[in-house]
Write a structure and sequence with these properties.
By secondary structure, the protein is α/β, with parallel strands linked by helices. Helices cover 37% and strands 16% of the residues. The protein has two domains: 186 residues, Rossmann fold (3-Layer(aba) Sandwich); 116 residues, UDP-galactose 4-epimerase, domain 1 (Alpha-Beta Complex). It contains eleven helices and 13 strands. Helix 1 links the parallel strand 1 and strand 2.
Length: 330
């Protein structure tokens, strides 16, 4: 299935990852529709595409609008989600409604309109605390946050919809995706904003391990899966398979931007930082998250952007868009 000429709708297409997917699809000749309620997405992410895309302002919880919007669509890229861990902990019902009920609406509207394929955003959070590293797709699935539960439920429903209705459903289990247009709130963004202000990174603990994957690498895997007509129902880790400790990330940022030091703040999980206004350390924090990407490698994908290069790309974007990171996103 060639992307050129396809009618593709991207839910959450004005968001961080969604806008990169939209931009690439347009460049490859697809006819793209963005469906977004702009709760976290921004027109700033897609203003350079405004004359090349069909835009529908709508919520995935509005089933009637979804169903009408999916008319004459070949493929759905479902990126819309509630993705803030703090929010899911304090309001798990809202998290469940947006992520699981919203996804069910997407699946039902797609079936109603004879859509051929849905590629949807899942998450490494479905695994919970790592039992072994790197975590492959068969790793035990025992989420430690409600967000992981809502995303795991979407995967189970996706399989059922494929088996019952024949629609292709493919999930991308995202590791920590970063790059230009990222929202301000996660550890790398906090480090980069402080670097821009010539302030040292603030580290809590530092032994936590994360797998950072650059956003354009995500887009490449997404598009490979559009073209793989033989893959009907599956999930793929979307990751580098390389673990980076938060302490090592802080050292990298310090060295890259010639910062004076690293500030180690002794706060417990769930406690409010005194160094970063409004920021809390997450409760039930993941100790390690490194995803095995060998399954995606077997279909011809390999991440290309090294962490130091990706950080430089995001920092270059931030210097021109620093006004967008005034307020923490939760």
């Amino acid at each position: 299935m060639k992307i050129n000429g396809l009618n593709i709708l991207v839910t959450g297409g004005a968001g961080f990852i969604g806008s990169h997917i939209v931009e690439n699809l347009i460049n490859q000749g697809a006819n793209v529709t963005i469906y977004d309620n702009f709760s976290t997405g921004s027109m700033k992410n897609i203003k350079h595409l405004s004359d090349k895309v069909r835009l529908i302002k709508g919520d995935i919880l509005d089933y009637k609008k979804l169903e009408a919007s999916f008319d004459n669509i070949d493929i759905i890229s479902h990126q819309a989600a509630q993705l803030e861990i703090t929010k899911c902990i304090f309001n798990p019902i809202e998290d469940l409604k947006i992520n699981t009920e919203g996804s069910l609406n997407v699946f039902n509207a797609a079936v109603k309109n004879d859509v051929e394929k849905i590629i949807y955003a899942s998450s490494a959070c479905i695994y919970g605390q790592a039992k072994y590293l790197p975590e492959d797709e068969n790793h035990p699935q025992d989420p430690n946050w409600p967000y992981g539960v809502s995303k795991l439920a979407v995967e189970k429903y996706a399989r059922i919809y494929h088996e019952n209705y024949g629609i292709s459903t493919i999930g991308l289990r995202y590791s920590i995706i970063y790059g230009p247009r990222e929202w301000y709130g996660r550890v790398l963004t906090v480090f980069l904003k402080r670097a821009l202000e010539n302030k040292p990174p603030v580290v809590w603990g530092g032994d936590q391990i994360r797998d950072f994957c650059y956003v354009t690498d995500v887009v490449e895997l997404h598009n490979i899966l559009i073209n793989k007509e033989e893959i009907k129902n599956d999930v793929f880790n979307t990751s580098t398979g390389i673990g980076t400790s938060i302490n090592d990330l802080a050292i990298l940022i310090k060295n890259m931007f010639n910062l004076s030091d690293i500030l180690y703040e002794n706060i417990g999980e769930g406690e409010l930082s005194t160094e970063i206004e409004g920021r809390k350390r997450l409760p039930l924090e993941l100790k390690a998250m490194v995803l095995d990407n060998s399954k995606a490698n077997k279909i011809g994908w390999e991440p290309k952007i090294k962490l130091i290069n990706g950080i430089n790309k995001e920092y270059t974007w931030l210097k021109k868009n620093h006004f967008r990171w005034k307020t923490l996103s939760y």
